[in-house]
Design goal:
Helix content: 25-40%
Shape: globular
Mean pLDDT: 92
Number of strands: 27
Radius of gyration: 26 Å
Structural class: alpha/beta
Strand content: 15-25%
């Protein structure tokens, strides 16, 4: 472990030894004979999300450069290894390598991404929340190999599993209390040991469908890291790195290697970690930063393979302690040669995917973005694309289940739609989770409670065009225990189809199965009754685009404030 001031303390101890025992050997020749530190390079990424091909739009740029794409990522990793001592380089990741992926990866249950990252030399990765999208059994298959239990070996070849080790320290099997996967790994470099502890955020059950986390319990991140750090020290490991799928955000003025006004869960988690932990490679927030938090190096490489964090450690050869740690976020630019093996992999899976991806499913008259409008100073407003998806979900259930409203969660809207023709692949990239639509009964009072819960969770539900209500920025926010106590939504302002909602009446409302299970903290939706499961959300979206084309961005007038609608 590296503790600031340790070297000064060592100097003082030498002086005391001289005074007590006489002169000690300090000649330049003898000083040079001391073992030199071992240089270890960590190459880190996070939140790759299956972006084998270069991401498009704003998702494909960073620091003013076009970035990303596994063909370029593999080349940059190779160049960084060549610049360091290759045998001293360890490549790691902090979760969400898969899940919410473009069609090229998702159509094959993300096997192409695991194959590509294995080929690119990844050694260890923590699990992220999206690693649990299809449940624990599927995650174990991704690690160990084997054909998918339903779809088989889709590309006709056996899936061999990951060529790297997933680490999952804080996801425990509820029945046994044992970790789902290996909690840590020990990697030797020139005789010194480096320990890697991997885990996801404790709140994973709140942002993954209940089926995905069934049978699992998630523990506190700092407590888990400290527990396994103690175990590693008992095994003689003093250099300890945590790969954590949780993160923070710096101020907008900060660059990719800055740490300006850092906020978010990672700050508290790191502050509670044991001093023996030297480095925290983080993720989840899709941000780039390079920080010193409580004497620990804390990094994040944004998302989609646009950055690689180059971390240099100097480790004492005798004690195994980290003497120094420094990092640099490097842009995965597209001005280097493509890795030919990655190119061949992409072409192979594109061939297997066939013409499905390029099938046109609709046309947009303008770009329709997922960007949220500002609502009284915060990004809690509506989204053009979010509203469009809610409209599509209502259209899919208004006749079949007599739904009168639909709501969409913002985390389920993953990409923008460009102007012009929309392909199936583009629609899939917007909605990649394959959630089922669920229509349920809610009373008017429950509807108000659901809307109040938005201000507790900090997440806005995008409403269908039938919904309208007014928000009071001076109203009170409820609590996690009692979200219904909030007064942000002006009572009497909620309308469905232009008619005021009666708190005692019952209404049919459509959401996806993630929300129906209380996802994103919307526990009020679990009180719905008479649930009927419908089609896949992507199918509803595609059908709507086809039927309504050309499609324009919906007007953002479904949620208004008291400043726009003064009290009567």
């Amino acid at each position: 472990m590296f503790i600031p001031g340790m070297r000064r303390a060592a100097v003082g101890l030498t002086a005391l030894a001289v005074a007590a025992f006489g002169a000690v050997a300090t000649s330049p020749e003898q000083a040079d004979a001391r073992p030199k530190p071992v240089d270890v390079t960590l190459l880190a990424l996070n939140d790759f999300h299956g972006n084998l091909e270069p991401p498009t739009g704003s998702s494909g740029t960073i620091a003013g450069q076009f970035a990303g794409g596994v063909e370029f990522l593999a080349t940059h990793l190779a160049e960084l290894r060549a610049a360091a001592k290759k045998k001293n380089t360890i490549t790691v990741a902090a979760g969400d390598l898969i899940g919410a992926s473009p069609l090229l990866s998702a159509a094959f249950h993300d096997e192409p991404t695991i194959e590509a990252l294995s080929m690119a030399g990844l050694d260890y990765a923590s699990v992220g929340n999206h690693e649990f999208d299809e449940g624990a059994a599927e995650l174990l298959r991704i690690q160990n190999g084997g054909c998918h239990p339903v779809d088989g070996c889709i590309d006709g070849t056996p899936y061999r599993g990951a060529g790297f080790q997933y680490l999952s320290a804080n996801a425990f099997k509820t029945a046994t209390g044992r970790p789902l996967m290996a909690p840590y790994a020990i990697h030797k470099v020139q005789g010194v040991k480096v320990g890697f502890i991997g885990m996801t955020l404790e709140g994973t059950p709140q942002i993954v469908s209940q089926q995905g986390v069934a049978g699992l319990t998630f523990a506190d991140e700092a407590e888990t890291a400290n527990r396994y750090a103690r175990e590693l020290r008992r095994k003689g490991v003093q250099a300890i790195v945590v790969l954590l799928h949780e993160g923070g955000t710096q101020a907008a003025t900060g660059g990719i290697n800055d740490c300006v006004g850092m906020t978010g869960p990672i700050v508290d988690i790191t502050n509670r970690m044991d001093p023996s932990i030297d480095v925290v490679v983080s993720g989840h927030t899709h941000q780039a930063y390079n920080c010193d938090i409580n004497g620990k190096l804390v990094t994040s490489a944004s998302s989609f393979g646009r950055l690689v964090t180059d971390i240099d450690l100097k480790i004492d050869r005798r004690s195994g302690d980290v003497l120094s740690a420094a990092a640099n976020n490097v842009v995965v630019s597209r001005d280097v040669a493509k890795d030919p093996k990655q190119t061949a992999l992409i072409e192979r899976y594109k061939f297997e995917l066939g013409p499905v991806a390029g099938r046109q499913v609709g046309v947009t008259t303008q770009a329709i973005t997922k960007t949220q409008e500002t609502l009284f100073g915060t990004s809690l407003g509506e989204s053009p694309l979010g509203n469009l998806i809610a409209d599509a979900q209502l259209a899919a259930t208004d006749d079949e289940q007599n739904a009168v409203a639909a709501f969409m969660n913002p985390g389920g809207v993953r990409a923008d739609l460009d102007a012009g023709p929309v392909t199936y692949e583009e629609a899939f990239t917007v909605q990649p989770f394959a959630n089922n639509l669920v229509t349920l009964d809610l009373t008017g009072a429950q509807l108000y409670c659901v809307l109040e819960q938005q201000f507790v969770t900090g997440r806005t539900l995008y409403p269908s065009a039938t919904v309208g209500y007014v928000v009071d920025p001076n109203g009170t926010t409820g609590t996690v225990a009692d979200p219904c106590a909030g007064t942000r939504v002006v009572r009497g302002s909620l309308t469905l189809g232009g008619t005021a909602v009666d708190t005692a009446a019952t209404y049919r409302v459509t959401v996806n199965n993630f929300l129906a299970g209380g996802g994103d903290g919307f526990s009020a939706l679990t009180g719905g009754t008479n649930l009927v499961t419908g089609q896949i959300d992507l199918d509803a979206f595609v059908d709507y685009l086809t039927a309504q084309s050309p499609v324009s961005a919906p007007t953002l007038d479904r949620i208004r404030t008291t400043a726009e609608v003064p009290a009567a």
